[in-house]
Amino acid sequence: MSRQLTFSIFRYNPNNPDVPPRMQEYKLTETVGMTIFVALNQIREEQDPSLMFDFVCRAAICGSCAMIINGRPRLACKTLTKDLPDKITLLPLPVFKLIGDLSVDTGTWFRHMTLKTESWIHTGKQFDPQAIEERMDNETALQIYEAERCIECGCCIAGCATANIREDFLGAAGINRVARFMVDPRDERTPAQYFEVIGCDEGAFGCMGLMACDDNCPMQLPLQMQLAYVRRKMALAGLKAGR
Amino acid sequence: MSNYQIITTDVLVVGAGLAGERAAIEAATHGLDCIILSLIPPRRSHSTAAQGGMQAALGNCAMGKGDSPDVHFVDTVKGSDWGCDQDVARLFVENAPIAVRQMAYWGVPWNRVVAGKKKLPDGREIEDTKDKEGLITARDFGGTAKWRTCYTSDGTGHTLQYAMDSIVVKLGITVHDRTEAIALIHDGTTCLGVVARCLRTGELRIYLAKSTVIATGGYGRLYGASTNAVINEGSGMFIALETGIVPLGNMEAVQFHPTGMVPVWILITEGARGDGGYLLDKNLHRFMPDYEPVKKELASRDVVARRMMLHIRKGYGVDSPYGPHLWLDIRHLGAKHINTNLREIANICRNFNGIDPVKDLIPVRPTQHYSMGGVRTNIDGAAYGLKGLFAVGEAACWDLHGFNRLGGNSLAETIVSGMVVGKKIAQYTLGATLNYNYSLVQDFARQQQERINNLIQGKNGRENVYKIRKEMEQTLMDYVGIFRNGPDLEKAVAKLQELYHRSLKIGLKSDGKWANPELASALRMPGMLKLALCIAYGALKRTESRGSHYREDYPARDDTNWLKRTLAYWKPGSDLPELDYEPVKITELPPGDRGYGESTQVKK
Ligand SMILES: Cc1cc2nc3c(=O)[nH]c(=O)nc-3n(C[C@H](O)[C@H](O)[C@H](O)COP(=O)(O)OP(=O)(O)OC[C@H]3O[C@@H](n4cnc5c(N)ncnc54)[C@H](O)[C@@H]3O)c2cc1C
Ligand code: FES
Fold first, then answer.
1. Which of B9, B52, B327, B515 could form a disulfide with B269 if both were Cys (CB 3.0 to 4.6 A apart)?
2. Per-residue CA distances from A219 to A106, B158, B200, B250 (Å)
3. d(CA A56, nearest CA chain B) in Å
4. pLDDT tens profile A55-103
5. How many CB atoms lie within 10 A of CB B286?
6. Is B257 noted as a catalytic residue in this protein?
7. What is the model's pTM?
């Protein structure tokens, strides 16, 4: 009754360039509720213990396990095999540096992005441990959280045509990050200061508008809206600066 | 033989969760050079997964009125079943509000008080007042007298970790991610750093530091069913234990969360019950009020978990291929509330179980969740046994939680201890020098290289790491769970000893080269079994019930004989820990009734 699944998995170890990249097939019997997480672990434990892939939370909250599953960037931990055909192809995310097989270096990419967009609160105020907290409207707090839900999985970057050709493009994740700080009243940066960071082709103006980011985001962040928001602000800032 | 690359720094923090990063920030702001090691990018640490919230007695919301560090202190001590050090609890409750506010200053979008009248799910009317509007609000969590758990919707851990990491980046603190500490380096009196394996290339490196901080989180993955991330394998604890000098404290104190979702064991946060969700049995009867008329679903975690298992044992569980379970019902909270305030829960249900909690019941069962035990430290976070070694967060037994941690007290502990202990680390480090013997240090790395070579060449045997691991997980689940007894624990100890010996005979199936994952597991296996033995053996010897440690054959708390902490040492060459005991520090609140739930013991 259960299906026989065939996994075709990308194999390559950059430490060992003599062995060229290849696709390797593994067969598995599907079980109830099987996710790619379950399947890959089973393959590693029973068939090929050298297979490299990344999972941490296995609950779709840490962003570790993004890969290309039958052509689309997705979180492997929350992808159920029952939603896929018998033949499942797994490739590592493009754009990011390959560590081995399905494992890529998203950490370095996102730290660079965080630095570049200066993703921390810029404020001249000092923290006073004795004082009560500054007030904030709950609606504002919720709005900030909405923009902060990105888990840095890299799906938006992997699916983005610009990011695939322009190494420095900050992509939807970067633009969303800037939007998160723009809506935060604690951040004292001016539009002009933001413009310095992303008012360029590596930032808000590099996007070609194919909108794959929006389709691929496993957190369903409104990336398209965030881009429009940032672009509007940047266009205004650009105009003012031009005058 | 070749020598290994040496990297030196003032403070070496092993672990980039909330605790490790907060300690590193403190050290860095004191002008110290600091390196953080982590298996993964910091933002993927397990701390990110915490949904529910962080306790601090701000007293802003209506149901938090009158809250204070004193009330928080009493809850924490009672929650610990008098197993905690009260001087630590006092220090903690006084600093938690500062920690929460500092996190707001660093960018956490805490949910805020909205003025107005509200109706609670149980029908009570409350009113948040205008004068508190816009201050940080709180939700209800188990075992607390007041609503004290500060939160950001259900992404509290995520927002805390991202804000924390942004400060780490801003301060330019060096992070070596995909790096695993596999042994501590020490000369018998002072810790000098670690041997680490690069998870990109597989090479070994030596890190030397004036102080070394273990902030590696919990060991949940020793158990087959755990809410923890798959990297929570307790490696920081066992590398400390393997020195033979540093003891682990209270390893038998293992927390089971009442609501792990069956069968994937992903956590359904306590916030679901805090917001008014309740538990049903196979007859759709809400059974908790029968056992706990006052606190109901919000009695302390250990209490709810035991009541649930008891109810299942009585035959009221819902049968499933994964064993009997109960239901969590949040349908009455309504689509709007579920899809905003409890959105992550809704997503988890949909993605991993194909159910919609707006219409469907959620299958749940108690699941391993938190390790109260860990590297035993004093109130300054200094590990027993070695100078220059510190521990913070879930990896440590500081000892704030005793035998049961209250929900929301762990996130608070990571940040408060990171802050307070971080300062102590800075003070120590500023007065310390790094003296080491070059060949001693290199020898530590060579020993690890030899282990690796032996595994690759199959010199010790052909045991399969994954098989041993499965048997360990099952042994702990079967015999060292929520209900414990002498005969079962004896079985567990014997089985784990057998597995430990087998783990010394592991041989790899793959070539073990570079960042080979089988090699990583094989290197960890003996250490994980040592931890498992500390848990099982400590539980066997503790002939009483306290907090999460429940002995069916000794159902009462025994303050005369057991108001003390277990210290487990691992002597070289041994296959069982050596246990020692020390008194628990009582400063303000003498042992008494816990005051909520289980004032009468579980009846069978
Ligand atoms: C699902 C879930 C929900 C939770 N919700 C809440 C909640 O709502 N409120 C609350 O108070 N608590 C909650 N907890 C508990 C709390 O989240 C954790 O106890 C806490 O986050 C632990 O933080 P930490 O900094 O000690 O460790 P972690 O966040 O686990 O970080 C450990 C770090 O150590 C690194 N590491 C591990 N081993 C090594 C090694 N050998 N070498 C190098 N690096 C290593 C890892 O890469 C990681 O960066 C929850 C726990 C779970 C499982
Ligand atoms: S493993 Fe964390 S998102 Fe998939």
1. B52
2. 17, 13, 28, 39
3. 5
4. 999 999 999 999 999 999 999 999 999 999 999 999 999 999 999 999 9
5. 14
6. yes
7. 0.95
